């Protein structure tokens, strides 16, 4: 038996090994004005974690995609450098007396996330548990959402947190994955029926309703709770994932078009009904109508983009303070991309988006190579969650769509989001491994 | 399904490309505009320690300058009469007036020459701050401010031919220096200014919205003469009787607010303007019709925001209205004949800024052509020692642009003659005679003018108004047009007219002295 050395993965990790410590050193030089690298502990720990994850995969003789980890590790590395550059007092954790700054806390979550990824990638050899209990998963997801809605703590005007002692947990991130599993299971089973026999009603063709209703009902419940708990970003993301998976399963653009029309109608109703939706939309149309109040965040973000220009102001040299405060609220979460774009410029922003786009392409490749419909749809849904999340937050930051609070995968500060993103990678790697192993087996025993 | 996934990949990559396009817009295309907005923290930080160009009056007297000590820029203003038109440049409260409109040049963020601007960008050169020269003569500004001492009001004077603003004073004024200095000590003086019930921060010339009263009759008469609705000889048959019984429009009785010692007669334009007959102008307004009245008012600049100067560096002037403002901007149509007849003598829903009314006077003075107002005459290279006057190097002369014709020269000449009668005629001198420059030591010059006594709701005393221009004798080219308001000052003849006359006389004297 030959061992998979995963050489491509190792070579692609080399830039991370260099860039992250370099980014930390540069931040220190700019901040202190002294020409020494400063404390590199967190950077080295990050590099070590990533290499450890790589080695674990090698030792487990993992045959999965070799680009996924390096791409995510590079994006995550940029995020950690940015979080280390921001004032550490922005947030952090008091873990039973142990004070962790923002970057240190994020690093702890990286460790947890990478571990989860490796465990899932290596030990999830069979997806039967995911496939066969889809209604259980759906019920669990809905229950989790309901619990959040009833008992969750409200932060930043949205109720999407459950406080667990020193740390908060965002159930939405877990629900996202559970939802994808459910939709993949359902669509894989009913795909032929949904894609086939359309009933002609007047000029339009409609899908066979009985197959659709259970899924729509569960989905409507989840969406309803999301909208009521004022988490528009998650609602938009879930809906986008749903439409994407529906499109891939059926190949019908008409479903997506109907979905989009429904979305527009729904948005209009939400605009009429909910004050917070109106504020978001009005702000999107003209943030300068109230530049120091409701439009402040958007206006300041656009200024940051403008200051960044093509090459950026340089690490640690952007983000001028207003009265001693960073100009953009939530800079470490919803607006981290703005900070990247300001300090690393359009070039850096492009690079970060290109890395995410590449990750999406690799995820879809896993979907194409998957051995059955369920795995394929699961990979599509998981990959779409990463891609759409990136698109929604960046488009929101850049005022292309109304701003919704959502994280940039691997970059934004936040444990739940980071952990969920690595779970997604773990699932992708596990599926990728199975496809590769099957291909090997097929080669080894020619018919 | 593989095909579907490939298509999905295509759509997602397309979305990434679109988002990238959006970023390119903010970070490259629109970046300069964003980077120079005054509330951009980068701009605020740059202003904190940045040298700022000086501002001089028309004769090179220093009005505003900046010194940088210990990394903190301090702005000093020499004359509080200019506080509204120049405004302030505060690290804490932003910029207003000329300081706001010319911020990019004063701070040296841009250069008036686009080529040099590009060169600065390419070479990453920091452009130098620029100085400004104003059209206002400090002597006239101070004189006007002295006339308004102790009252709440405004004086604006303009060269009717060029549109150059000669004086622009709003009272009460405030000292702009403390609020523009060290942010740590700026809040207390600002709080004191804001606590004053007379609202010193409001520039009444540009932002004051007042009922005009009888000075509006100049707009009504302009429209009527130019459109041929009336001639200077037109009379209305029922006038004499209505002078005593009132003129009933749709059940609403219009009366003269004050007839003085005159008795009812059959008046044409000149005497009607001399006694300021509401009934005569109500007739004129109704004959003119609402649509035509509105269209002439718009040609005078009503119904839309105005500006001093042009382009990116214009200073905004609040819109004046003939009728209720329409929800989408502009004036709504007259609701009925009562409103039309009342608006014709400056009541009902008419609200005006002093700037607007000075331009009405200037239009009549300038043969029917409304000049484009401007206040910055030159952008100059920065003088390192501003106390020794401005640099000789002029980089740009913004000017006011060309004016536009509002009424024919014939109509303007007829109106000018009637406005001279309104000041000097047998009856007119009782009402607007106090605006005559002859009273203030200038002889051989005819004065054109019109007073207004703007009724206010409740039992508040009326606003006192005067607009006018000199020299107004036939063939002479007027050199100054004014609008004066004294809030709650009572009859126009009492407070505003003498101030207008004195300011115009002072300007003629200053011009004669050279």
Q: In DSSP terms, counting alpha (H) and pi (I) runs of 4 or more, how many helices of chain A?
A: 15
The largest pleated sheet of chain A is described as: 3 strands, antiparallel
Indicate the percent of residues in helices of chain B: 25-40%
Instruction: Please give the alpha-carbon distance between the first and last residues of chain B.
Output: 90 Å
**Overall number of domains of chain B:** 2
Quantity of strands of chain A, as a count: 7
Tell me the greatest interface.
A-B, 46 and 35 residues
Instruction: Give me the CATH superfamily of the largest domain in chain B.
Output: DD-peptidase/beta-lactamase superfamily
Content of β-strand of chain A? 5-15%
Return the string of H and E elements of chain A. Answer: HHHEEHHHEEEHEEHHHHHHHH
Radius of gyration of chain A: 22 Å
Helix proportion of residues of chain A, in percent?
Answer: 55-70%
Calculate the terminal CA-CA distance of chain A, rounded to whole Å.
21 Å
- Please state the second-level CATH architecture of the largest domain in chain B: 3-Layer(aba) Sandwich
- CATH topology (level 3) name of the largest domain in chain B: Beta-lactamase
Describe this structure in words.
The complex is a heterodimer of chains A (447) and B (514). Helices cover 68% and strands 6% of the residues of chain A. Chain A is mostly helical. Chain A has one domain (7-444). By secondary structure, chain B is an alpha+beta fold. Chain B is globular. The model of chain B has no long low-confidence stretch (mean pLDDT 89). Chain B starts with a helix and ends with a helix. In chain B, strands 3-2-1-6-14-15 form a six-stranded mixed sheet. Chain B has a five-stranded antiparallel sheet with strand order 8-7-19-18-17. Classes of the chains: A mainly alpha (447), B alpha+beta (514). Chains A and B meet through helix 9, helix 12, helix 13 and helix 14 of A and helix 1, helix 2 and helix 3 of B.
